[in-house]
Specification:
- It is a single chain.
- Helix content is about 20%, strand content about 25%.
- It is an alpha/beta fold.
- The protein has an 8-stranded mixed sheet. Strands 8-9-10-11-12-13-14 form a 7-stranded mixed sheet.
């Protein structure tokens, strides 16, 4: 099935259309996989998509890829039309739904391509490179490691670190998730996009790390896997599972002064119709919020 692309563009009268056209492509976020935990193909997830987490930021001619869920396979099909490719891949953590697309990422099997791979070393890991080979490209992968012909370069990040990448500032922060996870703030030319998935809010107040990372951002992409009712359901509570709710996403967005909140990491059982109803509630609470969908292209800071 061909992925449909939709673009959200501001409609304020004071935005000059020529300037918008000129700047639209210099900092955009593209959504390739927006589902949490497990892929959910089928007729009930067509509009929002069933692929797991993978987003791409295109910034001043550079490609930054965040997480390698099954959406990464679709991204790889596009990149194969543009070889040779150099891109920068950042992992929040290494649970299956965030890595399972990489062994099927076609550009990694093409000689001449180069991928810079960033992430934190997990608590039991020896190095980023060794962990990636053992856990992401291990013997359960459908394709042997020897097939990876691209140049793969590995870099280790610390929580709370800042780095520069060709004039793009990358800031990391800690997320509340089993086995830890890392959030990212990407800033270029005075504009910022923040990616916080997977994370669980705290019962006694906002997560200061997330609020700090999201401060005054143009876009906050936040793990809003559940509704508050689902999270606190007495028969099947989701407390301690490492994920948050759309209501908490809005709280963080308002506290941090975020311009646009993206509801991300949709629960596998949430159908298109369910998410449509959720979208109406989200919009009533925070008009500048948007539901993540596969194919969505979101310009940053215009």
């Amino acid at each position: 099935m061909e992925t449909k692309t939709s673009t959200i563009v501001p409609t304020q009268d004071n935005i000059d259309s020529a300037k918008l056209s000129e700047n639209l492509g210099d900092f955009v976020v593209k959504f390739w996989g927006v589902r949490g935990s497990v892929p959910t193909p089928g007729k009930e997830t067509v509009r929002y998509g069933g692929n797991t987490s993978c987003i791409e930021m295109q910034i001043a001619g550079k490609r930054l890829i965040f997480d390698g869920g099954t959406g990464m396979r679709e991204l790889g099909k596009e990149l194969m039309q543009e070889t040779p490719v150099e891109a920068y891949i950042f992992f929040t953590h290494y649970h299956w739904d965030h890595i399972q697309g990489f062994p099927l990422f076609a550009p990694a099997f093409t000689k001449g391509n180069c991928f810079h791979i960033y992430g934190a070393i997990p608590p039991e890991g020896e190095s980023m490179k060794q962990h990636f080979i053992d856990r992401v490209l291990h013997y359960n992968s459908p394709v042997p490691l020897t097939g990876m012909q691209a140049d793969l370069r590995f870099y280790e990040l610390q929580h709370g670190q800042k780095m520069m990448l060709h004039g793009i500032e990358i800031e990391t922060g800690s997320l509340n998730h089993p086995n830890t996870a890392m959030g990212y703030r990407v800033t270029w030319n005075g504009r910022s996009a923040v990616y916080c998935s997977d994370t669980e809010h705290f019962p006694d107040g906002l997560d200061k790390s997330v609020v700090s990372l999201a401060r005054d951002a143009d876009v906050l992409i936040y793990d809003a896997m559940y509704t508050d009712d689902e999270y606190h359901n007495p028969k099947s509570p989701k407390v301690g599972w490492g994920h948050s709710t759309w209501q908490e996403a809005i709280k963080v967005g308002k506290a941090a002064g975020v311009k646009r909140v993206v509801i991300f990491h949709h629960e596998p059982t949430h159908s298109d119709d369910f998410l449509d109803r959720m979208a109406e509630q989200v919009k009533e609470t925070f008009p500048m919020a948007v539901m993540a969908k596969e194919g969505l292209v979101l310009p940053v800071g215009i």
